[in-house]
Fold Putative iron transport multicopper oxidase.
Amino acid sequence: MLKLFISLLGLFLFFLINLINAAEVKNFYLNATYVNVNLDGKYERQAIGCNDTYPWPTLEANKGDRIQLWLTNGLNDTNTTLHFHGIWQNHTNQMDGGDMISNCPIPPGGTFIYNFTLEQSGLYWYHSHTAGQFADGFRAPFVIHDKNTTSGEDEFPYEYDEEVILTISDWYHQDNVELTKDFLDLYNPTGAEPIPESLLINEGMNLTWKVEPNKTYLVRLVNTGAFVSQIFFIEDHQLEVVEVDGVYVEKNITDHIYVTSAQRYSFLLHTKNSTDKNFAIMQLCDQDMLDVPGNLNTNETSYLIYNEDADLPTEAYIYDWEDFLDDYYLSPLSGSELLEDPDYQIVVEVTMNNLNDGKNYAFFNNLTYVAPKVPTLMTLLSAGELATDAAIYGSNTNTFVLQHNEVIELVLNNADAGKHPFHMHGHHFQLVQRGPDYTDETDPVPYDEENADEFRDVPLSRDTVFVRPNSYIVLRFKADNPGVWIFHCHIEWHMIQGLSLILVEAPLQVQKDEGQQLTENHISICEAAGVLPSGNAAANTEDFFDLTNENVQVKDLPSGFTGRGIVALVFSCIAGILGIIVLGIYGLLPINEKKVIEDFGVESIELDETSSNDVQPNTKSSTSL
Ligand SMILES: *[C@@H]1O[C@H](CO)[C@@H](O)[C@H](O)[C@H]1NC(C)=O
Ligand SMILES: *[C@@H]1O[C@H](CO)[C@@H](O)[C@H](O)[C@H]1NC(C)=O
Ligand SMILES: *[C@@H]1O[C@H](CO)[C@@H](O)[C@H](O)[C@H]1NC(C)=O
Ligand SMILES: *[C@@H]1O[C@H](CO)[C@@H](O)[C@H](O)[C@H]1NC(C)=O
Ligand SMILES: *[C@@H]1O[C@H](CO)[C@@H](O)[C@H](O)[C@H]1NC(C)=O
Ligand SMILES: *[C@@H]1O[C@H](CO)[C@@H](O)[C@H](O)[C@H]1NC(C)=O
Ligand SMILES: *[C@@H]1O[C@H](CO)[C@@H](O)[C@H](O)[C@H]1NC(C)=O
Ligand SMILES: *[C@@H]1O[C@H](CO)[C@@H](O)[C@H](O)[C@H]1NC(C)=O
Ligand SMILES: *[C@@H]1O[C@H](CO)[C@@H](O)[C@H](O)[C@H]1NC(C)=O
Ligand SMILES: *[C@@H]1O[C@H](CO)[C@@H](O)[C@H](O)[C@H]1NC(C)=O
Ligand SMILES: *[C@@H]1O[C@H](CO)[C@@H](O)[C@H](O)[C@H]1NC(C)=O
Ligand SMILES: *[C@@H]1O[C@H](CO)[C@@H](O)[C@H](O)[C@H]1NC(C)=O
Ligand SMILES: [Cu+2]
């Protein structure tokens, strides 16, 4: 008996030691710097690179490893932060990188130490979470391999010979500061998103991927773009999807996949046995997302090369691009069942509208997110028992307080005619329902619990999911990761328009957790940035319910004053000042304004005289996300 016990203990220790041996500390020293690049061969511009080079390195680690990453802000004119997309950050909320959410902005010259362990495996990515910086190139994949133990557990669940990482993205010729200025502008009252100039693959174009015949490749694909979703396919080859957003799934074979900004799909590719022909790797932009015409080539061809002596392939076509793999029907290998009925249901409605400054904003339940003066995590940590009261986090942050271990259901009704890829930090959520495209209905169709489709017993979990136009999604997750987590649209432009809400999860557990206390490095970064690491949303450390001088959104438009009125006002002002007729200017205006005129029909616009004095920004609004 004792012998058995000792040998079992020995076996246990053996595995324990193996496990400890397997986990390593991985150190990275990265410096965000401006670099000049010409990624699409059409235009040289300044981008945000790493250590004076581009692109950023792909980070690789094993499940269980500790990451220590020293990020220096080598950009002389802007703050920055770094987010590890899809990583839960259990007990290390302050390492999640959300600017003014869980992270003080890192000022120029500052170095922030990101320090956390990995509980997950699969494909992730890392990117700046400040303003629109990831559109400027501050982005790269993050691969977490499964532990290599002899126990047979924690191994990649499918056989393959070789692994390949592909990033797809969109690329602009202007930088995020210029783009944001023109986008969030009185002259763009419809909120038409800037159109990228190019679609990239592995941060370039015309990729040549040399394959060997009769092999199985694991292709890890991530869309690191700021805006458009892309269809991806390889001519005459099937894609066997095995992982989405770090979640292993039952194999699903498809011809093409639809990848929104921030989503990941890993698939197995079996190469052919013959080498007489080469094939096209195709990227097609989802053109439904483009409000205005631009200079974008909406599809790009790259090359799957079996034979360097054979001809390069020409572009390939698919019969019906809408017939892509529907992630709603994927099944996680874990077999994790649908979470039970929710303890707490959050219902939000997405709209886009103009405020008094004539700019177009995005709203959850009529509130557009405006960053607080103190990062929400720091408010939580300094509020004592008041941390459970949503009021202290500000009236313009869309904050919801969640109780520890509750099952949360988030119902998102999209009253907007666009598709949006929503991302939640700190969690993978179950995709419980997703409504069809209701573009053809007169009004948006909200979720109707009574008449919902039957739920799947084992629904897919992931961290980024799209909602269809005028339709809804229903998500569930367990509040088992105390911290402050943002839920937002991953289209950078929509996030800049305020399409974010904040989940303050089990605040008292966060306070009690030794590991969640701010590091000295973090406190010094806050000081250097001039951000108070304590106090309510208005930076009041005395009275947490006194929100005087908090950041709030600009006022609503006066009733009866619409986008149409703004357009009229803008154009009659221009006409007045220049003393020429509107039509004369038409030809000189950049594309967005032209589109606006077309959308609203200039001839039929009447000037709303009474409101003309109201079109002024009247409060400070921050877009420092
Ligand atoms: C960046 O530079 C630092 C300091 O010179 C160096 O330690 C680090 O390895 C470099 N990182 C990359 C990815 O080149
Ligand atoms: C890609 O190939 C096309 C067609 O051959 C060429 O016009 C273009 O300049 C290439 N782009 C880059 C970035 O090499
Ligand atoms: C980071 O890059 C900036 C700009 O190139 C440079 O001034 C600074 O010395 C670099 N810092 C480190 C730690 O490498
Ligand atoms: C910041 O750095 C860029 C690129 O290195 C340089 O062109 C610019 O003049 C600098 N700006 C300031 C304010 O120092
Ligand atoms: C960095 O953030 C702080 C706090 O919001 C702000 O005061 C400062 O102007 C920012 N710095 C830059 C260079 O944008
Ligand atoms: C990272 O965190 C661990 C655990 O708290 C700590 O032991 C270690 O010193 C930290 N590393 C750095 C570079 O601060
Ligand atoms: C796993 O460990 C074995 C033995 O050390 C090694 O041969 C193999 O290459 C490792 N596999 C991976 C994927 O690292
Ligand atoms: C393909 O590979 C398998 C296993 O490696 C081998 O048995 C088979 O003969 C190969 N087939 C061809 C046509 O090369
Ligand atoms: C290549 O040949 C092997 C056996 O020789 C077969 O199992 C495999 O399906 C073939 N691959 C393709 C893509 O036809
Ligand atoms: C690619 O774009 C061109 C130009 O818009 C179009 O003529 C062609 O049909 C497109 N190809 C595919 C595969 O969609
Ligand atoms: C694969 O996806 C399709 C939807 O695109 C679904 O109908 C089918 O059930 C899925 N099969 C598996 C095995 O996941
Ligand atoms: C970490 O958080 C995730 C996300 O909610 C959760 O699934 C997981 O169980 C947590 N792990 C620990 C050790 O708390
Ligand atoms: Cu969106």
